[in-house]
C-alpha cells in the first residue's frame, strides 16, 4: 500500500551548492547547530578582467572631463556637442566590456541582469520626481544603497544604465548624457567600495551611507560642472575659464564658479540623500539583501546521482 511518497531512485535530483564565501552551519557539542555567519553575496564580483575594464573606463572618463584644462589658448574650445558623440560611442562598448569581463570572471548571470534591469528602471523612474528642481534628485539614495549591497562592479554598470534610461525617459538626451552616465557610475562604484560591507549593520551603516551620499552628491555636481564650465562664455573674469592658463589658476576659478553657481543645487541634493538614506535605508537595504540571498548569486548548480 502506497504511503503517497515518490519512489526512491526515480530521476536525478539537482540542488544549488551554498555560495562561495558563505559559512556552512556547524554543530556545537551538546547543542543545536550554530547560526552561520552569512557573508554578503554580490552578483557582480570584481575579478581581474572586470577591474581592468573599470580602470580603462575611469581613465577615459577622467580624460574626457579634464582635457580642456590642458588645452592651449588657440585650441578654439567649443561646445561639448563636438566631443560628446565620440565619448558616447566609446562609452557604450566600454560598458559592454565591463559586462563581458564580469561574465568571464563568473560574476554576472541572468539573475543579476534581471536585478540590474529592475533597479535601473526604479532609478530612472525616481529621477523625474524632483525634475532637478533645486537639486532635488531622489534617485541618488537608491543608487548609493544598491551599490553598497550589490558591489562596485554591479554599481558602476547600474549607475550608468540608470542615467541612460532616465535620459530617455525624461528627454534629457544631449552632450551631457555620457558624462552623467560616467559620473553616476562612479557614485555607485564608490558606494560598493565602502568598508564594512560584510559586518557593518544598523545605525552606523546608515550614517556611513548618508555621509557618503552627501559627499557623492556634491562631487557629482562638481564633476558635471567641469563638463560644462570651460565652454561657457560671458562670465566674470574671476570665475571664467582661460584657455592656456596654468591649471592651478583655472582650478581656483573653477572652485569660485562652483561656489557661486551650483552649490545651491548640490547641497539640497546632499541633504535629501541623507534624509532618504536614514529614513528609508533600513527597509531598502533589507529588501536588497533578501533579494540577493534568495537569488543565490554565485551558487553553482551541482547534480547528484539518484540513490538506489
Automatic annotation (TrEMBL):
Transmembrane parts of this sequence: 52-72, 84-104, 141-164, 176-194, 206-223, 270-288
Domain of life: Bacteria
InterPro entries documented for this protein: ECF_substrate-spec_UCP037395
Region span, Disordered: 1-43
Sorted UniProt keywords: Membrane, Transmembrane, Transmembrane helix
Protein name: ABC transporter permease
Organism: Streptomyces longispororuber
Amino acid at each position: 500500500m502506497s504511503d503517497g511518497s515518490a519512489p526512491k531512485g526515480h530521476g536525478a535530483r539537482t540542488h544549488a551548492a551554498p555560495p562561495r564565501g558563505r559559512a556552512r552551519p556547524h554543530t556545537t557539542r551538546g547543542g543545536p547547530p550554530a547560526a552561520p555567519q552569512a557573508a554578503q553575496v554580490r552578483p557582480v564580483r570584481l575579478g581581474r578582467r572586470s577591474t581592468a575594464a573599470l580602470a580603462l573606463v575611469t581613465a577615459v572618463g577622467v580624460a574626457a572631463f579634464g582635457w580642456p584644462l590642458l588645452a592651449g589658448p588657440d585650441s578654439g574650445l567649443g561646445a561639448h556637442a563636438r566631443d560628446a558623440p565620440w565619448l558616447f560611442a566609446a562609452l557604450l562598448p566600454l560598458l559592454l566590456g565591463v559586462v563581458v569581463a564580469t561574465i568571464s570572471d563568473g560574476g554576472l548571470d541572468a539573475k543579476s541582469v534581471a536585478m540590474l534591469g529592475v533597479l535601473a528602471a526604479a532609478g530612472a523612474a525616481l529621477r523625474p520626481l524632483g525634475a532637478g528642481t533645486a537639486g532635488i534628485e531622489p534617485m541618488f539614495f537608491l543608487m548609493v544603497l544598491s551599490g553598497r549591497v550589490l558591489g562596485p562592479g554591479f554599481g558602476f554598470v547600474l549607475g550608468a544604465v540608470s542615467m541612460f534610461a532616465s535620459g530617455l525617459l525624461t528627454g534629457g538626451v544631449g552632450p551631457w548624457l555620457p558624462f552623467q552616465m560616467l559620473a553616476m557610475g562612479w557614485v555607485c562604484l564608490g558606494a560598493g567600495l565602502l568598508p564594512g560591507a560584510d559586518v557593518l549593520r544598523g545605525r552606523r551603516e546608515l550614517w556611513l551611507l548618508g555621509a557618503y551620499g552627501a559627499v557623492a552628491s556634491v562631487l557629482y555636481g562638481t564633476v558635471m560642472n567641469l563638463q560644462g564650465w570651460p565652454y561657457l562664455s560671458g562670465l566674470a573674469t574671476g570665475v571664467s575659464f582661460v584657455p592656456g592658463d596654468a591649471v592651478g589658476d583655472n582650478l581656483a576659478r573653477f572652485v569660485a564658479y562652483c561656489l557661486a553657481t551650483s552649490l545651491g543645487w548640490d547641497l539640497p541634493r546632499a541633504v535629501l540623500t541623507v534624509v532618504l538614506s536614514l529614513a528609508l535605508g533600513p527597509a531598502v537595504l533589507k529588501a536588497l539583501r533578501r533579494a540577493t540571498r534568495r537569488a543565490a548569486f554565485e551558487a553553482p548548480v551541482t547534480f547528484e546521482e539518484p540513490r538506489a
